[in-house]
Design brief:
With 377 residues, the protein is mainly α. It contains 15 helices and 4 strands. A two-stranded antiparallel ribbon has the order 1-2. Strands 3-4 form a two-stranded antiparallel sheet. Helix 2 runs antiparallel to helix 7 and helix 6 packs across helix 11. The longest helix has 60 residues. The chain starts with a helix and ends with a helix.
């Protein structure tokens, strides 16, 4: 029975979600539990077709693009340059730390770039790492670095206000007052009659995938004879961002219902992690035996160094408020669990605005960063 592909896929999902739901002091792995279980299944010789991973990847990154698209440009009107710069700096520091680990410590580049994606909790980054390196070992690095990548940012956003002895009520009042300035302008919409090809939005979703695959095939020559392309991780992401931002083509609606996107995003993420994890499982134990603890420490460094540098830059150089700084750190580290923690700690949903403005920038940069490292190193 376990030889049946569908049985394996959904059995890994069932066990993986159970593992991911285990909470330790309020922290859980979530969907990353699926990856860890898939690694175990792969170690014991189970296989799934590459189509499972590819379908999951495309569904996931396209959904992320549509969800982030409406805020990708609009939120830049407030602290635009700061958010863009901060999102880029965090990922660049993470990439430089990764390059240092490759060059100084001698960790294989495919494992290292996977650790970068895991340390920055970026599944599109993992997809780009696998795409660029052509190695499933990137999933091993991701699986090792991801847990601390989640826990580290979650703890950071809770500990910083305590360390600074912040008066949260006063800080929240100042922050919300600033957030309400110009709020009406953001909510103005122009009502018009649009044509909907279907009620759920599968038409624009499929269109974004088609356009994304076309973008993925475009090859850009680079110095030294190398080539760069967005790949199946970057192409659909960019297409989703663009269609999600504009929301229409002429009179043709490009709107996809949010609950549909959230479902496709989770479904795609699970399929991708199952495919990538099972494929990488064969070499997982061997790599852990050779450098397991050391790799965990390196992954922690890739999480901590960009996070501390990013916060210092946000607070001291860009002069962002504490809430904006922490929200931007969550976005720059592409950490949704940390955003949930930050909302609980600050007691205001408005911190999500800094996250939403920084997250797409970081997402694009981490995909490009993983691809560049995979290509050149």
């Amino acid at each position: 029975m376990l030889g049946n592909t569908l049985m394996i896929v959904f059995l890994v999902a069932v066990i993986g979600y159970l593992v991911g739901s285990i909470k330790i002091r309020g922290v859980e792995l979530g969907t990353a539990g699926v990856l860890l279980v898939a690694l175990v299944f792969g170690h014991f010789g189970f296989e799934v077709p590459d189509l499972v991973r590819e379908l999951g990847l495309i569904c996931f990154v396209t959904s992320v693009g549509f969800i982030a698209g409406p805020k990708f440009f609009r939120n830049f009107k407030i602290n635009a340059r700061s958010y863009i710069l901060l999102g880029a700096i965090i990922i660049i520091i993470g990439a430089l730390t990764t390059i240092g680990i490759i060059e100084i410590a001698g960790v294989p580049s495919d494992v290292s770039v996977g650790m970068m994606a895991g340390a920055l909790t970026s599944t599109p980054g993992l997809a780009a790492a696998i795409d660029a390196t052509g190695s499933a070992n990137a999933s091993v690095g991701y699986g090792i670095a991801y847990p601390f990548g989640v826990v580290g940012v979650v703890l950071f956003v809770q500990l910083v206000p305590k360390f600074l002895k912040t008066d949260m009520a006063a800080e929240r009042a100042r922050f919300e007052a600033a957030q309400n300035v110009g709020d009406e302008e953001f909510h103005k919409t122009k009502k018009e009659e649009l044509f909907y090809a279907d009620s759920m939005g599968f038409f624009p979703f499929a269109l974004a995938i088609v356009l994304g695959i076309i973008l993925a095939k475009i090859v850009i020559p680079l110095p030294g004879g190398a080539e760069f392309s967005l790949g199946t991780s970057g192409g659909p992401l960019i297409a989703g961002l663009i269609l999600g931002h504009f929301g229409k083509i002429g009179r043709l609606s490009m709107k996809v219902e949010k609950h549909v996107l959230e479902c496709l995003r989770e479904f795609g993420l699970a399929l991708f992690l199952i495919g990538a994890g099972v494929e990488a499982g064969a070499g997982f134990v061997e790599i852990l035996r050779e450098e397991g603890l050391v790799l965990f420490i390196y992954g922690a460094l890739i999480t901590l160094i960009p996070m501390f540098v990013g916060y210092f830059f946000a607070a001291k150089v860009l002069k962002l408020s504490l809430f904006n700084s922490l929200g931007s750190i969550c976005g720059g580290m592409t950490s949704t669990p940390a955003l949930g923690t930050l909302i609980r700690v600050t007691e205001t949903d408005d911190v999500a605005s800094a996250y939403a403005a920084t997250y797409p920038v970081a997402l694009v940069f981490v995909v490009l960063g993983c691809q560049f490292i995979g290509i050149f190193l």
